[in-house]
Amino acid sequence: MIFSRILFDLATRNVRLHFLRSLLAAVGIVIGVLAITAMGMMGSTLQLSVSSQLSEGANALVVYPHMTSGSDEGITGRQLRDIKLSAGTNPVIPIMSGSDRITVGSKNGYASVYGLDPGDIGEIAEVDQGVSVRGGEGALVGPALAREYDMRVGSRIILGFEGGRSLRVVGILKESGFSGAMMTDNAIVVAENTFTSIYGDKGYSMVQILVKDLSAIDRVKESIESKMNRREDTVTVWDSRAFLDMVNQALGSISLFVMAIGGISLIVAAVSIFNVMLMSVSERIKEIGILRSIGVQKHEISLIFLYEAVILGVAGSFFGALVSLIGGYLLVSFMFGDTTFFFAPQTLVYVPTGMGIGIGVCLLSGVYPALRAARLNPIEALGAE
């Protein structure tokens, strides 16, 4: 134990004697660990944040009419009744949807248009300003659309081209992101009878079922499919959990790819450490010869140089992790305005992971120089200048 401490002290002394060279090598590790750790933490925070938002609609099942060649018919009233029977006590919300040209003042563009029973609107959207539609000519607009066209309660929207239907904005919805099958932030919501008076009645584009008990989603889905598709496929049932899984997989892959790019800097750092260690062996050939002549074994010579690599790795990894924590916190706070997910275990696990990778890279970089030092002939080493 005492002799190992002496070997460690020799390694520490060499790092101090060549401080600038060692510092530059450690800086490479700092940058590499910072890149991997920060990218991993940012990716994890983004994934948790998006999953949290999407999971609010994870209890939704959406039933679409089965697409057949040349058919644009939606879900009929009879099919809707069968869906309600299969859904049991879970809320069932039939939705008509389309898109149309809109004109607000001198601005024009395109937006999604949804038609719902006024009594169902509160199930999937919340009014932030004004009131909800009550079956008249009013319209609700999403917050993003309202900002883009500078709309307020009382503004007028013209649906369609010149001479289209003019509707008064009676309310502006709250930000909701993804709400099951609907994305209302950039859309217009009107009463069902208003929608059919403008676009005609071709059935419902989709039916959304809000399953109260998450554990019952599969049972409700199977019940709808067995009821509706008993003889032939008439509907397609979409599970919002599949979308959540797909998003999580995509974000995970992106995060891993970005971390791999950051890992390139660690490869550069590894080359730098390797070079520093080889230089250290070349400069200390005579010292190695003296140590061998007084009885120091080959593996103990190797330990000295491996200790040096570990010292550089631990120092660089520690500061790299520290900088990534501080920088990551500030960046997440700036980008998301909420650091809740930054302190989640799934995010913080990248700190020890990054440090472990950094130390491992340094240790591997020091293996060959350490073995080379151990293989030096003691007599030739003593005679070296």
UniProtKB/TrEMBL annotation:
<protein>
    <submittedName>
        <fullName>ABC transporter permease</fullName>
    </submittedName>
</protein>
<keyword id="KW-0472">Membrane</keyword>
<keyword id="KW-0812">Transmembrane</keyword>
<dbReference type="InterPro" id="IPR003838">
    <property type="entry name" value="ABC3_permease_C"/>
</dbReference>
<dbReference type="GO" id="GO:0022857">
    <property type="term" value="F:transmembrane transporter activity"/>
</dbReference>
<dbReference type="InterPro" id="IPR050250">
    <property type="entry name" value="Macrolide_Exporter_MacB"/>
</dbReference>
<dbReference type="Pfam" id="PF12704">
    <property type="entry name" value="MacB_PCD"/>
</dbReference>
<comment type="similarity">
    <text>Belongs to the ABC-4 integral membrane protein family.</text>
</comment>
<feature type="transmembrane region" description="Helical">
    <location>
        <begin position="256"/>
        <end position="282"/>
    </location>
</feature>
<feature type="transmembrane region" description="Helical">
    <location>
        <begin position="303"/>
        <end position="336"/>
    </location>
</feature>
<dbReference type="InterPro" id="IPR025857">
    <property type="entry name" value="MacB_PCD"/>
</dbReference>
<feature type="transmembrane region" description="Helical">
    <location>
        <begin position="20"/>
        <end position="42"/>
    </location>
</feature>
<dbReference type="GO" id="GO:0005886">
    <property type="term" value="C:plasma membrane"/>
</dbReference>
<keyword id="KW-1003">Cell membrane</keyword>
<feature type="domain" description="MacB-like periplasmic core">
    <location>
        <begin position="22"/>
        <end position="226"/>
    </location>
</feature>
<dbReference type="Pfam" id="PF02687">
    <property type="entry name" value="FtsX"/>
</dbReference>
<feature type="transmembrane region" description="Helical">
    <location>
        <begin position="348"/>
        <end position="371"/>
    </location>
</feature>
<keyword id="KW-1133">Transmembrane helix</keyword>
<feature type="domain" description="ABC3 transporter permease C-terminal">
    <location>
        <begin position="260"/>
        <end position="378"/>
    </location>
</feature>
